[in-house]
Design brief:
Strand order of the largest sheet: 3-2-1-4-7-5-8
Largest sheet: 7 strands, mixed
Number of domains: 1
Keywords: Glycosyltransferase, Transferase
GO cellular component, one term: membrane
GO molecular function: dolichyl-phosphate beta-D-mannosyltransferase activity
Pfam families: Glycos_transf_2
Strand content: 15-25%
Order of helices and strands: EHEHEHEHEEHEHHEEH
Radius of gyration: 17 Å
Number of helices: 8
Family: Belongs to the glycosyltransferase 2 family.
Oligomer: single chain
Low-confidence stretches: none
Number of strands: 9
């Protein structure tokens, strides 16, 4: 039994899924993987099922009936992982924008360090992003500046999606009250963690844009993030977060 589970949400990731699974499960640390697939038309889930026979007891699949958003996928995965008593619960993309070799850095920050939430940060030591167009880098960087201004969190990469939570954090946060499903979900989770006085540590990583498959970013996701931060701040002020 491993104490670590890596949650990987998928929608049409057939080009990446086998490689990312093999890379995570080949790490020195014994990680388990939970893939949460939103009924991908490209049959991503079918590939996971095939690989489960090879990685029995280490690779798990939850298949949902329709595309329902990143946030709900992670909340589903958090509840699944808490029920099975994993101590360290990771978020990770399927497209290799997050390097599996960095998983152990996040684990070490929580297990050996004092972090309750370890963030794989693109901006804590400058701008460590590869293959993104300049407008995307600027949008992401200044989104985190905006979040710091509104919320008071001293986090350089508030929108990061490569993180490790101690189980206690997710047990304390009221997961059924998580509102956002897109880009703002990552901000909301960090703000709820921050508001409950948990220790947050940023671990520098290099983020590399996907080379296979299509990005899920959209204008509606960005709008949700911009206005969502303000609503989170008001909830905190009125003790309803």
């Amino acid at each position: 039994m491993s104490d670590c589970i890596v949650i990987i949400p998928t929608y049409n990731e057939i080009e990446n899924i086998e490689s990312i699974i093999r890379s995570v499960l080949s790490q020195h640390k014994n990680f388990h993987i939970l893939v949460i697939d939103d009924n991908s038309p490209d049959h991503t889930a079918d590939k996971v099922v095939v690989l489960q026979s090879e990685f029995e007891g280490r690779l798990f699949l939850e298949k949902r009936m329709k595309k329902a958003g990143l946030g709900t996928a992670y909340v589903h995965g958090f509840k699944w992982s808490i029920a099975r008593q994993y101590d360290y619960i990771f978020e990770m993309d399927a497209d290799f924008s997050h390097n599996p070799n960095d998983l152990e850095k996040l684990y070490n920050a929580c297990h050996f360090g004092d972090a309750d939430l370890a963030i794989g940060s693109r901006y804590v030591t400058g701008v460590n992003v590869v293959n993104w167009p300049l407008n995307r880098v600027l949008m992401s960087y200044f989104a985190s500046v905006y979040v710091r201004m509104i919320t008071g969190m001293k986090i350089h990469d508030a929108t990061a999606g490569f993180v490790c939570y101690k189980r206690q954090v997710l047990e304390t946060i009221k997961l059924d009250k998580i509102k956002f499903v897109g880009y703002a979900f990552q901000i909301e989770m960090k703000y709820r963690t921050f508001s409950r006085k948990f220790q947050i540590t940023e671990v520098p990583i290099i983020f590399t844009d996907r080379t296979k498959g299509q990005s899920k970013m959209s204008n509606s996701i960005i709008v949700e993030a911009v206005f969502g931060v303000i609503s989170l701040r008001f909830k905190k002020l009125f003790n309803t977060l």
